[in-house]
Amino acid sequence: MSSKPPLLSQRFRGYFPVVIDVETAGFNANTDALLELAAVTIKMDENGDIHPDQTFHYHIEPFEGANLEPAALEFNGINPHCALRGAILESEAMKDLCKGIRKAQKNEDCQRSVIVAHNSTFDQSFVNAAITRCNIKRTPFHPFVSFDTTSLAGLALGQTVLVKACRAAGIAFDQNEAHSALYDAQKTTELFCYMVNRYKALGGWPLSEG
Fold first, then answer.
1. Which of 36, 53, 160, 202 could make an SS bond with 181 (beta carbons 3.0 to 4.6 A apart)?
2. pLDDT class for 5, splitting at 50, 70, 90?
3. Are strands 141-148 and 112-117 parallel, antiparallel or unpaired?
4. Residue 23's closest CA among 182, 166, 144, 161?
5. For the whole model, what pTM was predicted?
6. Among this protein's residues, is 118 annotated catalytic?
7. pLDDT in the model for residue 176
């Protein structure tokens, strides 16, 4: 008699992990513009290992009255006023993201989505601020719970910087592509999956009964 396949909804207490990375025009989520956002969902295979699944990616126009810190723009190389970015309104991006995540979360029979990010407090603060500005009532994301891959990497790999943690895990990382929300989200997803799967392979999951 075959056992039931493992379910993602049973792995993280009913949470649906969504890896997110943002590029911004500063450090203050309430005043500084959100310029780019990428999100990657997670799926679980028949062996109970997790893998990247769907990707959502948006270039975003600064919200009205947003602060644009020159140092932040120099760091991430984004010109907010460049038409070639193909940027859309923040409200359009956030509504599309929340709709897509709610659907994916429902398909996995999970109760709530949880943001996974490298230094997750930063990314979560910008997502929450944007959702508030856009007056989105049905947010799929837990307002304060998050999974921080910085802390997990410090425990599992002895590294906290994303590029160093990826390399310690044997994940290729091109620093020329860094500070793109899409690239960083993809690499953070690979890192998160590696650490969760490695913990399972070492016998840490599922928890033994008794």
1. 36
2. confident
3. parallel
4. 182
5. 0.95
6. no
7. 86
